[in-house]
Amino acid sequence: MIIYGLHPVLEALKAGRVTRLRIADRSDARVQEALTLAGRRKVEIARVGEAELDRLSRHALHQGIVADVTAPREMTIADLVGGTEGAPLIVVLDGIEDPHNVGAVVRSVDAAGAQGVIRQTRRAAALDTVAAKASAGAVSHVPVVDVVNIARAIEELKSLGVWTVGLAGEAAQSYDAVDWTLPSAIVLGAEGTGLRRLVRETCDLVVSIPMAGHVDSLNVSVASGVVLFEAARQRRAPK
After folding, report:
1. Once rounded to an integer, what is the mean pLDDT over residues 47-65?
2. Mean pLDDT across the chain, nearest whole number?
3. Sheet order of strands, 89-94 included
4. Exposed, middle or buried by CB within 10 Å (0-12, 13-18, 19+), for 179?
5. pLDDT confidence of residue 236
6. Structural domains of the chain, with CATH
7. Which residue did the predictor score with more confidence, 186 or 132?
8. Which residues does 109 contact at the CB level (< 8 Å), separation at least 6?
9. Between the CA atoms of 178, 160, 90 and 12, what dihedral angle is there, to the nearest 10 degrees?
10. What is the pLDDT of residue 231?
């Protein structure tokens, strides 16, 4: 796997996932930070030209740095639920394939202190290149579980004691009326189509984010951030 850009590469270095660093001749302080980290971890470093970095990143904004990284450790739903001392908070992605959205959701998951993401294997966005950059490097820290069937994954979460809450614009109950201090999973559908019928019916509850303006919905990554930080707020509140 290849990632590029300063934030993603620095976070991958911190996580110990970089096997080789290819870097242009630049004097940027963040590039020097990456070189220092790579040296400490004994990562192979190659000085290459900008043309080579352009080719590797397919002419995306690489900021003079490209890294080869190892694939993340495979995890199960049980690993995700059992990997925390407190009540788990998980995001389930139903049909979200755009790598920008996936990366932005992963960034919100990391920022809110949630445990990880569950998504469907079929047509899943690769967690390198675009998604890694959109996540500002959070893909190196957030566990992602790939499953064959989202509805079955929700059933497994429920069997493990996790409250599954779908997000849909027309739902009557507001997201901030939910007790997010319980073990919880936020289920998000794709923009435009929303949650698939079976997935929606499998959730314990479906809620909405009330809209006060002229548009009737939020970008899915923004919506995930709104709900995640409401959950984080509730969990920080004095008992």
Report:
1. 89
2. 92
3. 144-147, 116-120, 89-94, 184-189, 163-167, 205-208, 173-174
4. exposed
5. 92
6. 2-69 (3.30.1330.30), 77-236 (3.40.1280.10)
7. 186
8. 91, 116, 117, 138, 142, 224, 228
9. 160
10. 98
